[in-house]
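pls design
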């Protein structure tokens, strides 16, 4: 029976209509809280949403971008003169380009058999039966022949393998670092297009005279304040901005990200849309064993009719150019949406203060008795009398002071 009554009351209560009732509460504490919350909400929307985040603008965050890079510089390395063909990979690239800072060279390698390096798993042996013919280890250098031979000029033995001999770990010649590379420059040309706003910008200084701009690009170096439109960056400058020591990069190599950030306010002239640059190391920490950057390549030739090669392990810096773009322009639709959101959020102040009033201040339920009324259809007054009660708010409304009705 009780469940039936509950369901009936709930069903009938679903069709009730609720309307807010205006009540002036002269409580200074509650008033200070109310105005304080209002101030915080309006400050958030005015300063952060509209001014900082520019919520009145239509934005585009996925622009079309193109990157072209080229390394420039010449260095003397022993009796050789190195140019971009020698130390840049590739000499002209896209969003990734690297430069060689140090080399480990293994000369005159030929296909044959030789001793496996002793650091490889199961490479050390004392007799032929310790070496399984045809066995290949993932971290090894070749295929085992089944023989146990002396490790080059040493007394201990390792398994013989079929590979390019001699192996690099034994015969590599470690050349000194290319310290002159600190003054090498990398040319980074970037253009960005915001298709929604039909705006195309570039990071190179605009000029009508092609000859003058080429002369400018051959001499300038990037400076955030003096030369913001110069696309030439010294490797030493990039390492410093990434908080890395160039001498350490020469030893281990590293991957550095060059971040080009376009934040464009298109309510202003497009000429104000210019890039900012930041630099950060991207590879693993330098104190970890797999940190740094290196790669191997070979130069092949014929020696006495036998194919031979020079194996080069190149340690250097790899630059990854990463472009981010954001453009905004005034639009009435986001402006209206943000304004309505701000006005709606102000209503939260009333809900918050009502909760404080009814929970912490209204100990004697004086406010709750005045705030909530229940009017049945049978007890409703005539329209003229009810209108008089509502319109009397301006002169004879309920006035509560510190919880005491006047």
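designed seq:
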């Amino acid at each position: 029976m009780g469940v039936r009554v509950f369901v009936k009351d709930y069903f009938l209560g679903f069709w009730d209509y609720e309307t807010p009732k205006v009540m002036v509460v002269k409580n200074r504490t509650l008033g200070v809280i109310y105005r304080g919350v209002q101030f915080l909400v309006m400050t958030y929307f005015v300063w952060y949403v509209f001014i900082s985040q520019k919520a009145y603008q239509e934005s585009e965050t996925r622009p079309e971008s193109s990157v072209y890079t080229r390394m420039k510089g010449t260095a003397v390395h022993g009796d050789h003169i190195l140019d971009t063909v020698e130390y840049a990979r590739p000499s002209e690239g896209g969003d990734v380009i690297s430069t060689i800072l140090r080399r480990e060279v293994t000369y005159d390698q030929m296909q044959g058999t030789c001793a496996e390096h002793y650091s490889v798993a199961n490479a050390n042996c004392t007799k032929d039966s310790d070496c399984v013919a045809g066995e290949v280890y993932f971290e090894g250098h070749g295929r085992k022949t089944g023989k146990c031979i002396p490790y080059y000029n040493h007394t201990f033995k390792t398994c013989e393998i079929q590979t390019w001999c001699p192996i690099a770990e034994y015969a590599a010649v470690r050349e000194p670092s290319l310290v002159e590379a600190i003054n090498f420059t990398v040319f980074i040309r970037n253009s960005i297009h915001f298709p929604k706003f039909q705006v195309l910008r570039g990071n190179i200084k605009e000029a009508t005279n092609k000859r003058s701009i080429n002369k400018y690009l051959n001499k300038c170096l990037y400076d955030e304040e003096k030369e913001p439109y110069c696309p030439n960056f010294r490797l030493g400058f990039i390492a410093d901005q990434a908080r890395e020591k160039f001498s350490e990069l020469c030893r281990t190599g590293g991957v550095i990200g060059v971040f080009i950030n376009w934040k464009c306010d298109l309510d202003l002239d497009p000429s104000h849309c210019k890039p900012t640059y930041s630099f950060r190391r991207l590879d693993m920490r330098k104190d970890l064993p797999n940190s740094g950057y290196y790669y191997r390549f070979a130069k092949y030739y014929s020696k006495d009719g036998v194919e031979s090669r020079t194996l080069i392990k190149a340690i250097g810096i790899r630059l990854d150019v990463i472009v981010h773009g954001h453009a905004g322009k005034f639009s009435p639709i986001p402006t209206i949406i943000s304004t309505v959101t701000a006005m709606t959020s102000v209503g939260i102040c009333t809900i918050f203060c009502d909760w404080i009033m009814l929970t912490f201040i209204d100990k004697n339920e004086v406010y709750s008795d005045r705030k909530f009324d229940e009017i049945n259809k049978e007890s409703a007054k005539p329209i003229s009398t009810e209108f008089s009660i509502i319109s009397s708010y301006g002169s004879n409304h309920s006035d509560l002071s510190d919880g005491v009705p006047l």
